[in-house]
Design goal:
Blueprint (H helix, E strand, L loop, with lengths): L1 H15 L11 E5 L6 E4 L3 E3 L3 E7 L3 E3 L4 E4 L5 E3 L11 E6 L2 E6 L3 E5 L3 E4 L18 E7 H4 L5 E3 L2 E6 L12 E5 L7 H27 L1
Antiparallel strand pairs: 1-15, 2-14, 3-13, 4-12, 4-15, 5-6, 6-7, 8-9, 10-11, 10-14
């Protein structure tokens, strides 16, 4: 019985390690507000809703010019006032990104996954500076599954992942600045995490066979 329980604990622990972490190329990604297509890279392997993403966003891109104004953080909360909202405020628009039609906050950071739609990564709420006279220009996305970010169940092989600053169609021409996404040191790979569990299973198997031999003798 003890062997069975230990086996279950090890296999459950191994299963929890099956989710992968999305690693940004080089650990850092710059997302210019002027780029209508955003910044993309290919995820090598099979990506599912159970995989995770984590990074810190810094910068405050601006959506209006002469001078640069209506600058926002990743949640679309205004850090430099402009036409449409003052500092600590926000404004929204309806548009389609990567097949997803929704209401977005101007200047927010969006995540697109090829074939699976788009989500806004940070909310325009009090936690991200809404209503504050000095909203933060840096926000942190703690390790989150893609499902918790809003994606439905899916499985895509080698999909393209895109980060883009939210702005209305045809309105990117006067944008400036960018978001910089920075990742901490990537977590250990799945193979490294599974190693101890597999070694434990081998050891348990040996002990089990040894106990059987002793009983037979």
């Amino acid at each position: 019985m003890r062997i069975r329980l230990a086996f279950c604990a090890l296999t459950i622990g191994a299963a929890s390690c099956l989710a992968n972490t999305i690693v940004l190329p080089g650990g850092t990604l710059n997302v210019p507000a002027l780029d209508t297509g955003g910044v993309s890279f290919i995820y090598n392997g099979t990506l599912t809703q159970n995989d995770t993403l984590a990074f810190t966003e810094s910068g405050s891109p601006c959506l209006q010019e002469d001078p640069a104004e209506y600058c926002t953080n990743g949640g679309g909360v205004v850090t430099v006032a402009g036409n449409g909202a003052g500092v600590g405020g926000t404004s929204t628009f309806v548009a389609t990104f990567n097949g997803t039609t929704a209401t977005w906050n101007f200047g927010a950071l969006l995540l697109e996954i090829q074939g699976e739609g788009t989500v806004q990564l940070f909310a325009a709420d009090s936690a991200d500076g809404l209503g504050s006279s000095s909203p933060p220009t840096s926000l942190t996305l703690s390790s989150s599954t893609l499902a918790s970010l809003g994606f439905a169940s899916f499985s895509e092989v080698d999909p393209t992942i895109t980060f883009i600053v939210a702005d209305g169609p045809g309105e990117y021409f006067d944008n400036s600045g960018s978001f910089t996404l920075t990742q901490a040191t990537p977590e250990p790979s799945m193979a490294v995490l599974l190693g101890p569990a597999l070694a434990g299973l081998v050891l348990l198997g040996r002990r089990f066979r040894s106990s059987i031999r002793q009983r037979v003798c």
